[in-house]
Design a protein that fits this description.
The complex is a heterodimer of chains A (269) and B (274).
Chain A: H1 7-35, H2 41-45, H3 48-81, H4 87-99, H5 102-113, H6 120-125, H7 134-159, H8 162-170, H9 175-203, H10 207-212, H11 223-230, H12 235-261
Chain B: H1 2-26, E1 38-45, H2 49-62, E2 66-73, H3 75-83, E3 90-92, H4 96-104, E4 114-119, E5 121-126, E6 146-149, H5 154-167, H6 174-182, E7 184-188, H7 191-199, E8 205-209, E9 221-225, E10 234-240, H8 247-257, H9 260-268, E11 272-273
Parallel strand pairs in B: 1-2, 1-3, 6-7, 6-8
Antiparallel strand pairs in B: 3-10, 4-10, 4-11, 5-8, 5-9
The chains are: A mainly alpha (269), B alpha/beta (274).
InterPro entries (chain A): MetI-like (IPR000515), MetI-like_sf (IPR035906), ModB_ABC (IPR011867), NifC_ABC_porter (IPR006469), Sulph_transpt2 (IPR005667)
Family (chain A): Belongs to the binding-protein-dependent transport system permease family.
Transmembrane segments (chain A): 12-34, 54-80, 92-113, 125-144, 179-200, 237-256
Amino acid sequence: MRRTKDGKGIQALAILFFLLVVAFIVLPLASLFIKMEWGGLQGYLSAPLVVDALRLSFLTSAVSTLIVVITGTPVAYVNARFEYPAKDAIDTMIDLPVVIPPAVAGLALLMAFGRRGVLGQHLNALGIDLAFTTMAVIMAQVFVSSPFFIRQARTSFEDVDRAYEHAARTLGASPLKTFMYVTVPIAMNGLVSGAILSWARALGEFGATIMFAGNFEGRTQTMPLAIYTAMQGDIDASILLSIILVAISFIVIVAVKMLTRRGLIIAQD
Amino acid sequence: MEKNVKLVSGIFIMALMLAVLVAGCGGPSATPAATPKADLTVFAAASLSGAFNETKAAYEASHPNVNIIYNFDGTQSLRTQVEQGAYADVFASASASHMNALKGEGYMNNSTVANFANNKLAVIVPKDNPAKIGSLHDLANPGVKIVMGTKDVPVGSYTLQILDKMANNSSYGPDYRSKVMANVISQETTVNYVVAKVALGEADAGFVYVSDVPAEYRDKVSVVAIPDSLNVVAVYPIGVLKESKHPEEAQKFIDFVRSDEGKAILAKYGFTPV
């Protein structure tokens, strides 16, 4: 950057904006901690609303992340390595849940899998009801969080040097063995940080859940729903749940940063 | 890559322009009114939305200097908003308890608070009645999907009161209450969501206000009445907030709600005007 005479002014302005942005993000989050009634902590940590929400949130987000990783890995690999017709269109569809509002996602899921839904009515005839169950919570989470993993996994697979794969194939490893023992370990950092991002998105999911799974303590009331419900009766409980979510989010970001900075693991020879 | 960036930014800019265009068309006409209108902010229980929208049309027709802005939500949510500093001129509550709380905390101009309507509860079922609910007894059948309000939203606490009455009634009993509660699949934060989930056919039955079954829902849901002996009287108080910048206008609106014309609108929507 060339320093001009008014460089000082520009610099001061940049610093001001910098401080404004940081303060705008830090102040609201800090306010949660300031407003928290720490005295009542013991009581709240055992309150059914809080305990149920925590338990349900961790259960559902763990299951949905597992589903996302298992189903998303092959999709990401295929998109990273192969060309097929309409690939761009399919790629766009896979990314869409990142952009559409969660409430729209919830309504769409209800229209598809609800009791009167396009597919749901046939499932209902078979005695399978998905909406307003814990399964619906997991489906909502998978729907909104899968793009985060698939995107990151695809990039990681694309970054893997094909020479290693060729070497393994030349030495007689099967394609599956090559994938499991060469490709995945090299891409591991990206895969893990993608999974963490996807898990965090699942943990924070609200709009699609309340529409498609409803709000029922212990069954479909995850932490964000409990925060929304408690806000109307017991603000302290919702502040406590919010603080727990903020702490988790902070840990997630640090973990992803550390993973992505470590660079690629190069196979030892 | 370069091409892609160009394409994406092109699409983005076009989308933005479209949004601006739509916003421009949809907004109110740009010609300013001759006299500035007073904005009256009314926080009203979600169950009042049908009736109060009609009240607004009638009121603004006869009071061209006033512009009514509604915030419809669950009563408990509105109370929280007021306590957290949201501005309102008028508060219309679906329960005495939330209104009394605000009165006690000093948010209301207490002398203006008065009951203006009564309401009671009913059970609604989808028109095609998938769970074959013919009477209140059927709500305890295994597998019936019931939607109600949370314990904090008035319609939910009234529902719990009714179930308590039924538990003490020989023809239902405590067993009935626990079976019904076991059938609840979702607890909604406003009564409107309860109505929506039943009208969509996603739930078999919902506990709502009698006034929640306006004409447009008559073809989607049927009503199973709850006898008065088991029902509750939901009292709707209305009042002016202490911080109102237009206390006279706010009082005039309340007077209109309680006038014969206002009462006729409330009655049309199933309320019992007081």
